[in-house]
Specification:
Blueprint (H helix, E strand, L loop, with lengths): L1 E2 L8 H14 L7 H14 L3 E5 L4 H9 L5 E4 L5 H9 L3 E4 L22 E7 L8 H11 L2 E5 L7 E2 L2 E2 L6 E5 L12 E5 L2 H10 L4 E2 L2 E2 L10 H10 L3 H18 L5 E2 L7 E2 L6 E4 L2 H13 L2 E2 L21 H9 E3 L8 H16 L6
Parallel strand pairs: 1-16, 3-4, 3-5, 5-6, 6-9
Antiparallel strand pairs: 2-10, 7-8, 7-14, 9-10, 11-12, 13-15, 15-17
Helix pairs in contact: 1-7, 2-7, 3-4, 8-11, 9-11
Family: Belongs to the DegT/DnrJ/EryC1 family.
Keywords: Aminotransferase, Pyridoxal phosphate, Transferase
InterPro entries: DegT/StrS_aminotransferase, PyrdxlP-dep_Trfase, PyrdxlP-dep_Trfase_major
Length: 364
């Protein structure tokens, strides 16, 4: 079976060497030495000022909203993983959906300003598939209207924009280190900011709001463990090689797929990509379903990602119409992509896709 992704694991001996130290120290969690070392190495790797390693990529979105005192309307994208919208709803905010750009599938800055009201407090945008939003335009709108900018940068580890990590932009950026990501810690995530006071607030929010017996604020349990940090320390030095391997798979797809009836989202100028996903867009949902069935018959499992458009979720009330996102969500499919996917499998997957899209739908 070929899944849409496969988690990379380091040499077991390399990981168990870290475990021996954990056993010797008996320090399993609560801001342990491996966690601090991983945070330090990630800050250096990414070139960011403040980074907190946390339990996952959703709770850091919630922490960002709480730390920035966002409680009202937030303009956001309908084309993202559900965690983006869920975090807003969970924190009692009102998501206001701006439609996406049909070329790169990121939120369209030209659709944002008309949605701003006296209750708008922030823009929460997703760098879709690890490809940067139109950062300058979004920041200009935020500055004009005194709004905060939160980036769901879950897919962006190892990617840069204009020579800087994509995680370095906005008031706050968050990332996911789930096992399926380019860089992972099995489960995990991080929150990044350049603001000293905000970083201090986030430090306490991550750990119940206290240090030892001194209580400073409200807080939640977003701490991560030494075991997860150990995985991160194993993988971080390999990120460059992992991205290079993903790029090779990406290029094989570009060679073997027939683009007469499929398209791909465009890459934002200035982005050095991390090859996180390989999305393709079909002429119709019927063609997508036909390809999915053909792949599934060969035990190949792609993913409808992102689907559905988040403004159509039944638990989101009075959502804005976003026709571009709604249309793309019906027609986009992510093909299998991971570092050790063999060339022969990429060629086979592409052949199945090409054959399936060549078949015309039966007339009604």
């Amino acid at each position: 079976m070929i899944n849409v992704t496969k988690s990379y694991l380091p040499d077991l001996e390399e990981y168990t060497n870290y475990l021996k130290g954990i056993w010797e120290r008996v320090h399993l969690t609560n801001d342990g030495p491996l966690l601090r070392e991983l945070e330090s190495q990630m800050k250096e790797f990414l070139g960011v000022k403040h980074l907190k390693f946390c339990t996952n990529g959703t709770i850091v979105l919630q922490m960002a909203l709480k730390a920035l005192d966002i409680t009202k309307e937030v303009i956001t994208t309908p084309f993202s993983y559900v965690a983006t919208t869920n975090a807003l709803l969970w924190e009692g905010c009102t998501p206001v959906f701006a439609d996406i750009n049909p070329d790169d599938f990121n939120v369209d800055p030209d659709k944002i300003e008309a949605l701003i009201t006296e209750n708008t407090q922030a823009i929460m945008a997703t760098h879709v598939y690890g490809n940067a939003c139109q950062i300058e335009k979004i920041q200009a709108i935020a500055d004009k209207h005194n709004l905060k900018v939160i980036y769901d940068a879950a897919h962006t580890f190892g990617a840069s924009y204009n020579g800087q990590s994509i995680l370095s932009y906005g008031d706050v950026s968050t990332c996911s280190f789930h096992a399926t990501k380019v860089f992972h810690t099995v489960e995990g995530g991080c929150i990044v900011t350049n603001d000293d006071a905000l970083a201090e607030k986030l430090h306490f929010y991550r750990s119940f709001g206290h240090r030892n017996d001194d209580y400073y604020s409200i807080g939640i349990n977003a701490k991560n463990s030494e075991f997860h940090a150990a995985m991160g320390l194993c993988l971080l030095p390999k990120v460059g090689d992992l991205i290079a391997a993903r790029k090779q798979v990406f290029e094989w797809y570009a060679t073997y797929l027939n683009f007469d009836k499929i398209t791909r989202p465009s890459l934002t100028p200035g982005v050095d990509y991390n090859y996180a996903y390989y999305p393709i867009v079909f002429d119709s949902e019927a063609a997508l379903l036909r390809v999915m069935d053909a792949l599934k018959a060969q035990e190949i499992l792609p993913r409808r990602y992102f689907y559905p458009s988040l403004n159509t979720l039944h638990f989101v009330k009075d959502a804005q119409s976003c026709p571009i996102s709604e249309d793309i969500a019906l027609r986009v499919l992510c093909l299998p992509l991971y570092p050790d996917l063999p060339k022969s499998d990429v060629e086979r997957i592409a052949a199945i896709v090409n054959e399936a899209i060549a078949i015309e739908s039966e007339p009604v």
